[in-house]
Amino acid sequence: MTANREIDSILQRAADGGRITPEEALLLYTDAPFHALGEAADTIRRRRFPDGVVTYLIDRNINYTNVCVTACKFCAFFRAPKHKDGWAHPMEEILRRCGEAIDLGATQVMLQGGHHPEFGVAYYESLFAGVKEAYPQLMIHSIGPSEILHMAKVDGVSIEEAILRIKAAGLDSIAGAGAEMLPQRPRKAIAPLKESGERWIEVMTIAHRNGLSSTATMMMGTGETHAERIEHIRMIRDCQDLAVANGYQDSAVETSHQVGGFRAFIPWTYQPENNHLKGRTQATTMEYLRFIAVSRLFFDNIAHLQASWLTTGKDVGQLALHLGVDDLGSIMLEENVISSAGARHRSNLHELIWMIRTADRIPAWRDTLYNHLQVHRTEADDPTDDRVVSHFSSIAMPGRKTLPLVDAK
Ligand code: SF4
Binding residues for [4Fe-4S] cluster, per the UniProt record (predicted)? Predict the structure, then answer.
């Protein structure tokens, strides 16, 4: 119980599985006592996942190019066309990295890159088809709505045609990338050349209608207001409502666990280095944790909530497990985009499992669609491969192949 009856009643309704309005979410975000907020959010997690399992994934983020025409102000990764440091990897290099990732247990690759002025739909078709042909067991969870809009524009085709073609070529799931902030004011301030938040939602709706599911993300900390953060999740929830109401469903996803197009929501925090925003604003740890809890209370229609240990740190990631989170995301064997902007947190397989277990949860290795591949009920069930470390290869840390890590064994 809190000292405020209105807050108590909203928390109780949300914890009981009822829907809260954006206005109520904003009130909880700004005014609810932290412990009551976290307890209500964790009640929802326990009801959704009564087995106490918290999942993780092994994947590799492989960048095909850093050339981009969109020049987002928060981005430290891209280079403008014709810049001397611009590059695009040939297919052989991408396949080599996929092969390395599989050797380390990856079940997923996230192919990520800039909006290259010459990369239309055919480029992505050959990229996805090439990976699937060489490694049919790898799930391709890649690109985001802004890449889809860009490739459709380059080729002068519809969004739907672009989606159908890249899906047929092998894309299994759309990453929720490029959402950053969906409301117009903060989006224009940090990514003036990017398509609008409404267009991001439109692409996701078309993908969901065509049986391609996705995740949804949010980057917080670039000067947006609390109300704009809530508006961001309102737009995503409405998009999911539409998918559920119309029966849009990815046939590969287990329907007893998830209906609709978005499988998970993943908020993360803006990183301040080497970009034009120069870290003038940043989300605090408490802002992030409170938002995690509010997201769990607000998204009555999205199954999973993921913590971003990469941007907030492992302690904060572990704390988020008590605020409604049921997934710690990936051991990113390679990550360059956020790391280029200053994300320094690193981990390994043993440590991620240890973080989950010492939060009194049961760790489970999952695939892209949240199917459990292995549940580590006791330490005897734990994997033994010491090579599975994050950023074992990263251009964000020249000259360093492996990093000092906490020995969590
Ligand atoms: S965030 Fe993506 S679209 Fe924006 S500049 Fe960086 S690579 Fe380009």
Answer: 68, 72, 75
Q: Check: CB of residue 333 under 8 Å from CB of residue 107.
A: no
Q: How far is the CA of 303 from the centre of ligand 1 (A)?
A: 28
Span 268-295, mean pLDDT?
Answer: 90
pLDDT of the residue at 294: 98
Cα–ligand 1 centroid distance for 253 (angstroms): 29
The predicted model scores a pTM of: 0.93
What is the Cα–Cα distance from 379 to 216, expressed in whole angstroms? 32
- What residue spans of 279-340 are helical by DSSP H? 285-298, 309-312, 314-320
Nearest to 94, CA basis, from 66, 61, 58, 125: 61
pLDDT digits (tens, 9 = 90+) for 49-103: 999 999 999 999 999 999 999 999 989 889 999 999 999 999 999 999 999 999 9
* Pocket-testing residue among 63, 66, 69, 70, ligand 1, by greatest number of atoms within 8 A of Cβ: 70
CB atoms within 10 A of CB 372: 12
Query: Binding-site residues for [4Fe-4S] cluster, please?
Result: 68, 72, 75
Per 3-state DSSP, the chain is made up of helix, strand and coil in percentages (nearest 5) of 40, 15, 45
Length reported for the chain: 409
Q: Alpha-carbon distance 306 to 370, whole Å?
A: 12
- Domains of the chain by start residue, with CATH: 53-381 (3.20.20.70)
